Amino acid sequence: MSSSNLHVISHPLVTSKLTELRAHDLPAKDFRDGVKSIASMLVFEASRELPLAPVPGLQSPISEFTGYTIPLRIGLSPILRAGIGMTDAALDLFPDATVLHLGLFRDKVSLQAVEYYSKLPTNVTADLVFLLDPLIATGGTAIAALTMLTEWGLSQSQIKVVSVLGSRVGVQNVQNEFPDVQIWIGAVDDELTDRGYIKPGLGDAGDRLFSTGTK
């Protein structure tokens, strides 16, 4: 699964926060806060190599100076519904970003992704899109979302997948289908259950974010 486009962020803060998220009895509020914290760190890391353009002629309280800005139109594409849990963290870093919601759910029998919503404008409105998906389990949902974004008009190099956690097979499936897309992820677990859940994983991220799981 080695690839120059796969970035597993083994930072102590990410690893310790992920340990908290794995606990089955973590309250929904704490789960939401944890996902947001990890998302912030992942998007920060995924932004490390963005280009900068000089802005000359600025004035500090002391003197004139040349500043820098990111000369790209940034898009954030959360996969509904769990991707909502990562959106505010990304918007904190890119407050002027376009938010491109994609509605996909995984059929519980076939484990295939089913599209039900897309908020992509007619014309491409971003130079770089961060695809926000907390979990890459089988990889089917991420692959479906990437297909939607590339059919919209983006190249693979214009998309960065940001995920809290993935399975080894799921991440590999995404890499096989979209080898030029960068994946920034907090950790990769080795196993999937026969129901398509990452093991040990986090459970269903959407249910845990929004308290809709079985009590």
TrEMBL record:
<keyword id="KW-0328">Glycosyltransferase</keyword>
<dbReference type="InterPro" id="IPR000836">
    <property type="entry name" value="PRTase_dom"/>
</dbReference>
<comment type="similarity">
    <text>Belongs to the UPRTase family.</text>
</comment>
<dbReference type="InterPro" id="IPR050054">
    <property type="entry name" value="UPRTase/APRTase"/>
</dbReference>
<keyword id="KW-0547">Nucleotide-binding</keyword>
<dbReference type="GO" id="GO:0005737">
    <property type="term" value="C:cytoplasm"/>
</dbReference>
<comment type="pathway">
    <text>Pyrimidine metabolism; UMP biosynthesis via salvage pathway; UMP from uracil: step 1/1.</text>
</comment>
<feature type="domain" description="Phosphoribosyltransferase">
    <location>
        <begin position="8"/>
        <end position="212"/>
    </location>
</feature>
<dbReference type="GO" id="GO:0004845">
    <property type="term" value="F:uracil phosphoribosyltransferase activity"/>
</dbReference>
<keyword id="KW-0021">Allosteric enzyme</keyword>
<keyword id="KW-0342">GTP-binding</keyword>
<dbReference type="InterPro" id="IPR029057">
    <property type="entry name" value="PRTase-like"/>
</dbReference>
<keyword id="KW-0808">Transferase</keyword>
<protein>
    <recommendedName>
        <fullName>uracil phosphoribosyltransferase</fullName>
        <ecNumber>2.4.2.9</ecNumber>
    </recommendedName>
</protein>
<dbReference type="GO" id="GO:0005525">
    <property type="term" value="F:GTP binding"/>
</dbReference>
<dbReference type="Pfam" id="PF14681">
    <property type="entry name" value="UPRTase"/>
</dbReference>
